[in-house]
Amino acid sequence: MSAGEPVDELGTSLSADDLRGIVAFTAVYAPAGLHQPISHVWRREGQVVSVVKLSPIHGGRRDGFRTFSRKSVVPAEAEGRWSVDVITDSGQLIGRLRFRVDS
Fold first, then answer.
1. pLDDT tens-digit profile of 36-69?
2. Domains, the chain, ranges and CATH?
3. Whole-angstrom Cα distance, residue 41 to residue 22?
């Protein structure tokens, strides 16, 4: 991350040995006037490990609304399939990130 911006996409597989934390970036394009709270739901092997409430979406911005959350992980506990769901307060899924952490 450089000045709060993602530098490179990591792909779908990460090495646990190189891991100290994971950052999930989200860009949401929404219609003008929409003001909706969203959350990141972090899962490892299908089990919820944390829910991060994010700033509400403010629709109508040409560049969209961007936000992120960070998950600190211990390398020994990081291995497996991960996902980050982007959901509204009403439970609507609006995006999903998937990746795997290998030893």
1. 899 999 999 999 999 999 988 877 777 778 888 9
2. 13-102 (2.60.40.1930)
3. 13
